[in-house]
Amino acid sequence: MTEITIEQLRVPDALDGDSATEFLQAVEVSRKVRVNTWGNDELAYTAEELFQLCHDPYEWYVVLVVRLDGAIVGRAGIALPLDDNTDLAHVTLDVLPAAEGRGLGRKLLEAAELFVRGENRRIVVVETNHPAADLRVEAPEHVAATRDGSLMPLSSREALFAHNAGYVLEQVEQFGACALPLPPSLGGRLKDRAIAAHSSAYAVHRWMDTCPEKWAQDIVRLEQSISDDDGAPEAWDVAKLREAEELSALTGRHTLVSAAECLETGALVAFTSISVLKHRDDVAFQDDTVVDSQHRGKDVGLHIKVENMEQLTREFPQVKTLYTWNSPDNTYMLSVNAQLGFVSAGVTGQWRKDFNAID
Question: What is the pTM of this model?
Answer without folding.
Answer: 0.88
